[in-house]
């Protein structure tokens, strides 16, 4: 936004907002007043008055689809509003019968538990072929069980307390719904699904079906569902029905088996990962999405385009006066001056 000449209003997040005090101090020391403005407080109270002014030309947003929809509707002229948003994800890890299960288990563990699974790029549902499901779940559970839970500053801790006060109860509700409909809490004996204050021990659910909330809803936390399938058509149907449009991961050693999934996913998600977890990096790879997962592409080049509108200055090439004028404008116009 700044590179393209835009002033900005930054809404500080309710969780972790204190860290931005350092950012605000740095901007205040380097930029003129009014270039970057910070707003604090509950988004439901602070954002509607700003959007209702109609002075917002572009909104950049990271969060849930419901909040994004409300913000757009609050603008009095939504047709004028450009939207650049990274939203929710329900990324599916697909394990085919010929997959290297050690690789699949390791990558799915990393993809579902890093940052407590609280990232849009996390693997939030695993669909595993029934012929290898038992072996995969055993390997996956062993890797998850080896993760140390504790406080962030403790040595080698991988699972830490959740920042949102309401999140543990929400996760417990997803587990109760799944178990009540026939799923198995694989690591119950190891404490899976229990909590100590805000510290939530990762829970692995096996036998998950589409009738369960965890199959559809974004958990955004350490509850990891495994659904079993007998035919890849079941996976394709789940992908087609999903609201997710961010990423997916395919685990296989056979290009012929990967191809139908890639062909289907190519028009459904923004990134397809082969034998690796879903993720953001490297930065030179565009971070895009479809459906309810994104509006716009996140990359340096795309961000510059998103926060700008092309303007052309033209003149008649056959008119000597216009040619002379056009050649000298960059010496007088700030807009046309070289960067």
UniProtKB/TrEMBL annotation:
Its EC number is 1.2.1.9. It catalyses: D-glyceraldehyde 3-phosphate + NADP(+) + H2O = (2R)-3-phosphoglycerate + NADPH + 2 H(+). InterPro entries: Ald_DH/histidinol_DH, Ald_DH_C, Ald_DH_N, Aldehyde_DH_dom, ALDH-related_metabolic_enz. Keywords: Oxidoreductase. GO terms for molecular function: glyceraldehyde-3-phosphate dehydrogenase (NADP+) (non-phosphorylating) activity; lactaldehyde dehydrogenase (NAD+) activity. Gene3D superfamilies: Aldehyde Dehydrogenase, Chain A, domain 1, Aldehyde Dehydrogenase, Chain A, domain 2. It is an enzyme of class 1 (oxidoreductase). Residues 1-309 form the Aldehyde dehydrogenase domain. PANTHER family: ALDEHYDE DEHYDROGENASE. Belongs to the aldehyde dehydrogenase family. This is NADP-dependent glyceraldehyde-3-phosphate dehydrogenase. The lineage of its organism: Eukaryota, Haptista, Haptophyta, Pavlovophyceae, Pavlovales.
């Amino acid at each position: 936004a700044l590179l393209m000449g835009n002033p900005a209003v930054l809404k500080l997040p309710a969780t972790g907002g204190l860290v931005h005090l350092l950012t605000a101090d740095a901007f205040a020391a380097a930029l003129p007043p009014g270039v970057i403005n910070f707003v604090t407080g509950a988004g439901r109270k602070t954002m509607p008055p700003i959007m209702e002014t109609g002075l917002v030309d572009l909104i950049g947003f990271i969060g849930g689809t419901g909040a994004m929809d409300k913000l757009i509707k609050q603008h009095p002229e939504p047709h004028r509003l450009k939207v650049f948003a990274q939203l929710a994800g329900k990324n599916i890890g697909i394990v085919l019968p010929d997959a290297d299960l050690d690789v699949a288990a390791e990558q799915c563990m990393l993809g579902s538990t890093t940052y407590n699974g609280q990232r849009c790029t996390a693997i939030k549902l695993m669909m595993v072929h029934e012929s290898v499901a038992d072996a995969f779940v055993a390997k996956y559970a062993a890797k998850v069980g080896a993760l140390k839970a504790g406080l962030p500053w403790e040595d080698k801790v991988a699972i830490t307390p959740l920042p949102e006060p309401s999140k543990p109860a929400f996760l417990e509700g997803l587990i109760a719904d799944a178990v009540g409909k026939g799923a198995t809490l694989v690591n119950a004996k190891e404490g899976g699904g229990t909590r100590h204050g805000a510290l939530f021990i990762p829970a692995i659910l096996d036998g998950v079906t589409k009738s369960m909330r965890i199959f559809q809803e974004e958990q955004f936390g350490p509850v990891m569902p495994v659904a079993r399938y007998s035919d890849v058509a079941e996976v394709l149907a789940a992908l087609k029905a999903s609201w997710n449009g961010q990423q997916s991961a395919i685990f296989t050693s056979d290009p012929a088996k990967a191809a139908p999934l890639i062909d289907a996913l190519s028009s459904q998600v923004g990134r397809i990962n082969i034998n690796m977890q879903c993720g953001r990096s490297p930065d030179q790879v565009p971070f895009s999405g479809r459906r309810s997962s994104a509006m716009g592409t996140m990359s340096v080049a795309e961000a510059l385009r998103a926060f700008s509108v092309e303007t052309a200055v033209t003149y008649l090439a056959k008119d000597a006066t216009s040619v002379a004028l056009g050649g000298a404008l960059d010496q007088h116009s700030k807009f046309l001056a070289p960067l």
